[in-house]
Amino acid sequence: MALSNVEAILTGGLIWTGPGSAFSGPDAPTAIAIGGGTVVAVGTDALVTSLAGPGVRRIDLGGRRVVPGLIDNHTHFIDGGFELAGVQLRDAATPEEFARRIGDFATEHPDRWVSGGQWDHELWGGALPHHDWIDSLTSGTPVFVQRLDGHMGLANSRTLELAGVTEDSPDPDGGMIVRDPDGRPTGVLKDAAMGLAFAAMPERSEAELDGSLHAASEHAVARGVTMITDMGSWANLATYRRAHSRGDLPVRVYSVVPLASWERLAEYVEREGRGDERLFWGDGKAYVDGSLGSTTAWFYDPYDDEPGTAGLIVTDTAELVSDIAGADAAGLQVIVHAIGTRANDWLLDTFAAARAANGPRDRHFRIEHAQHLRSETIGRIADEDVIASMQPYHAIDDGRWAGKRIGEERTKGTYAFRSLLDAGARLTFGSDWTVAPLDPLAGIHAAVTRATLDGANPDGWVPEQKIGVAEALTAYTVANAHASYLDGRLGRLEPGYLADLVVLSDDILGLDPRRLGTARVDLTMVNGEVVFQREDGP
Prior knowledge:
Elements: E1 8-11, E2 14-15, E3 31-35, E4 38-43, H1 45-50, E5 57-60, E6 65-68, E7 70-75, H2 77-84, E8 87-88, H3 95-108, E9 116-119, H4 135-138, E10 144-147, E11 152-155, H5 157-163, E12 175-179, E13 185-191, H6 194-200, H7 206-221, E14 225-231, H8 234-245, E15 252-258, H9 262-272, E16 279-287, H10 317-329, E17 333-338, H11 341-358, E18 366-369, H12 375-383, E19 387-390, H13 392-398, H14 402-411, H15 417-423, E20 426-429, H16 440-449, H17 469-476, H18 478-483, E21 501-504, E22 521-526, E23 529-533
Parallel strand pairs: 1-5, 2-6, 7-14, 8-9, 9-10, 14-15, 15-16, 16-17, 17-18, 18-19, 19-20
Antiparallel strand pairs: 1-3, 3-4, 6-21, 10-11, 11-13, 12-13, 21-22, 22-23
Helix pairs in contact: 2-7, 5-6, 7-8, 10-11, 13-16, 16-17
């Protein structure tokens, strides 16, 4: 019997409803009915077709795989929109190519800062870039281009001048001005020192922010991303609210602001609430350390290739302890970046102290990256119900060179997906876009194969940490919904859940893992509405 609330049906496919769903066989659902922005029914073609009236939209899946909407749990989303229009340096494999692209961009856009970049000095052997490489090519155009991890950037001489950075400038707390032997700045600024360049850059206008959100959203839905967590700012939150008020927010957004502003956030929540299921807030992010690629992640022992340092603490620890405890006491979610082994252990101790001081509640503490872990740390993350918010693409990227940074023994606890799941920890996945591509299918491929980008590890880098496709999908769906307090509403394709879904060109649950990279997104739905459809898709 047809149901009046059914607005669309998708039939003739393979529906993965979430963990525990049959992949194939007589028990695997083949069709789904949607209405009012939610899933109405999932089952056989005959069942779902019987629920559809004459005016219902019908989509023939043609055997394609359908999965819940893919959630990216860690992005720099509006920055990503800007990066799409900036200079592209990620694959610049030589210093000459790096410099040429920057010079060409400066010539083409003489009235703009040259920003973006996402360069990787490991592609040309590991030598850090220098402002001398680009000064003659950029003339008076200011340049500040960041490494792909976002923890250091290169300024040309014009930017150093605007920022007031000279050989007499002290290193800021939590940062480093890289210098030549004679003390002159090379142009490379690490972690907190990047703030010197950022302070000299013009503020983005509302129109620029709105345009970047639009570009980022189109980029996301074409890759099956139906919700993002944005590690952003108050300006970003205002941008999302403007778009939402216009009905122009195609993805769901969990908007994160700096943890240091938690008192302002607590007042904001009291006054404005926490938003709705399309746009919501109530969490703050902070940093313990830097990154492995910039040798600023905080370890117990020095780096093998830079023995003069064991990394940086990029936030005053007394302030961070106070902010975590205060935000937690105010009922806000606390999200903190920790990469090195010592940073992760310090953060777990700080979470435990806040938990003891503020008492039990459903707090969902999150460690962003949880990248390098000791075995005892993995057990603590599970036992203390802390969310490990990780980015699998980083494993196949960093795996090219991580060994020279920290050696074979320490890499055994790097991106420890399998060990975390086996310990019973909550594992969630994201991209860290623009540090890595905004592409969950690429992330799934990385988590399942751990085959590094240079082709040197076809059977997987630290292969004992591989996981299965269904486990990776869970980390991009159900687990991410929990991390954002959307249990029971998002992450599954079951009656009553929000109708966010993705139609894939291939059955990734049945593919040879080595072929996962061939799958593509054919259709994306958010709240039962098609927000992306490939021209040759269903």
